[in-house]
From TrEMBL, chains A, B:
Record's protein name: fructokinase
Superkingdom of origin: Bacteria
Keyword flag Metal-binding: yes
Residues making up the signal peptide according to the UniProt record: none
Family the UniProt entry places it in: Belongs to the ROK (NagC/XylR) family.
EC number: 2.7.1.4
Entry GO MF terms: ATP binding; fructokinase activity; metal ion binding
Gene3D superfamilies according to UniProt: 3.30.420.40
Catalytic activity as recorded in UniProt: D-fructose + ATP = D-fructose 6-phosphate + ADP + H(+)
InterPro entries: ATPase_NBD, Carb_Metab_Reg_Kinase/Isom, ROK, ROK_cs
Source organism (scientific name): Paenibacillus durus (Paenibacillus azotofixans)
Keywords, ordered alphabetically: ATP-binding, Carbohydrate metabolism, Kinase, Magnesium, Metal-binding, Nucleotide-binding, Transferase, Zinc
Class in the EC hierarchy, top level: transferase
Length: 293, 293
């Protein structure tokens, strides 16, 4: 079977791996994201002699994923030191001459869950990660969403929870979804990390409120056949039933579909690929690149 | 050139027409939407002897556009008397044995603008109508958005304008976008029809606030390459510059793209197909059906 390379380029760490076209992963390593030169040297060292036939890169953003654009393949306006306007695809291409797939980490994860995970056999799905930041990617009619650039679904505005007085932590928008509901926002609002809060703490009621409001917009705009929720904050599994109930309250029965009523427990789910969702997503991007898509 | 039939099935009126695969329309009639039997009799009378090779139907909703579903082709849970659970495609198929394309009126209009109008040459666009109700359709990577069913973008929640005390008029959600910003909501809030309000009335500042908030979500979730705004309320053309400015204020420069900065005047535009956007959309649906897509 053909060997595919995967790079999950995160703002905190890089994960590199090797896998097959069936989504299986046979090797993985990870190292901290530091200066591009240092980090990329580790990437090249890892892939040396591995003979991969394509590489998929699921990257932190914002990025330019638009093929034909002068800055295609770049990490663009990230506040992360040294990585702004960094030509990530160009750097890889210079060292490893194989087809390269490039997209956001969350579009990659959405593609992975669509091909091999929770959304297998469907033609649409949404993947959202709630962690240090909030991001989401989506497959529509078998295709990843692109347009002007890529989705930035973590920055939509949501209605404030009545009991929430926290100002919001997004450096751009203040109290957008990410500013109110990402891990650091929870930590700042309550003065301690989210993991230290009891499951019946008001913190989770507020968190579920914001995430359900986000899902309401995603459902009404994209009508995805499956919603996969990953990331560190979603390890708090008691959030899932709370989010499902709140989403139903918001929809008020307007969209008639069993996935939103009787079957909602299998509609909003954790990643089936677990902690490999990101890396498998990059394998999926490599597989698409190999197929010339 | 092949003759294509178009049915723009609206909640107030039906428009039927004949056109070609280049989007040109050579004939059109319209009549009020009454009882299905009466209205459909007029549809069949119109198409008799016209020898169309396919028919496209852009319908008011909610509908079931999912091919293979037991209720495919139905108008589903509409509050409109007599039309709930009406098998619209089935009724047409019984009388006219040609390929039939079926989608929401707004998905049809989005497809029309994508093929022949404001979004020609791009691979994504969003069409929103603001009139008696609010609805939107979108093309992503050349494909209309479907999933569980079709988008219901008019019912997203948006942040309230600080000076707005109107409760909202949506029978399902109260103060969702449609409940706050459709024509009837404007009329109820101010005690007179929108057309009677002066361009510098606070009404328009509030209207632009809600529509810009909706566009903020659409842009961050779909990243469309063009936004086309039609419908009765958007005939108030002074809304366009207000919406553009407010959207830029909300984005705060987060998404870096000329379409959202220097070129925003050509990014958010009225339908290029004008009042034919809906009918041309149905022609586009017919054309897709003929091609077997």
């Amino acid at each position: 079977m053909k060997l595919l390379g995967a790079i999950e380029a995160g703002g905190t760490k890089f994960v590199c791996g090797i896998g097959h076209e069936d989504g299986s992963i046979i090797d993985r390593v990870s190292f901290p994201t530091t200066h591009p030169e240092e980090t990329m040297a580790q990437v090249f060292q890892y892939f040396e002699g591995k003979n991969v036939e394509a590489i998929g890169i699921g990257s932190f953003g914002p990025i330019d994923p638009v093929i034909g654009s002068p800055t295609y393949g770049y990490v663009t306006t990230t506040p992360k030191p040294f990585w702004s306007q960094y030509n990530l695809v160009g750097a890889v291409r210079e060292k490893i001459d194989v087809p390269i797939g490039f997209d956001t980490d969350v579009n990659g994860a959405a593609l992975g869950e669509y091909k091999w995970g929770a959304a297998q056999g469907l033609d649409s799905c949404l993947y959202i990660t709630v962690g240090t930041g909030i991001g989401a990617g989506a497959v529509v009619g078998g295709t990843l969403i692109h347009g002007l650039s890529h989705p930035e679904m973590g920055h939509i505005y949501v209605r404030r929870h009545e009991q929430d007085t926290f100002a919001g932590a997004c450096p751009f928008h203040g109290d957008c979804l990410e500013g109110l509901a990402a891990g650091p926002a929870i930590g700042s609002r309550w003065g301690r990390p989210a993991v230290e809060l009891a499951p019946d703490d008001l913190a989770w009621e507020i968190e579920a409120h914001y995430l359900a409001h986000a899902l309401m917009s995603y459902v009404l705009i994209l009508s995805p056949q499956k919603i996969v929720m990953g990331g560190g904050v979603m390890k708090q599994s008691h959030l899932f039933p709370m989010i499902r109930t709140k989403l139903q309250e918001l929809l008020k029965g307007y969209v008639q579909h069993a996935s939103l009523t009787a079957d909602i427990d299998s509609y909003i789910v954790p990643p089936q690929l677990g902690d490999n969702a990101g890396l498998a997503g990059s394998i999926a991007l490599a597989s698409m690149a190999l197929a010339g898509k």
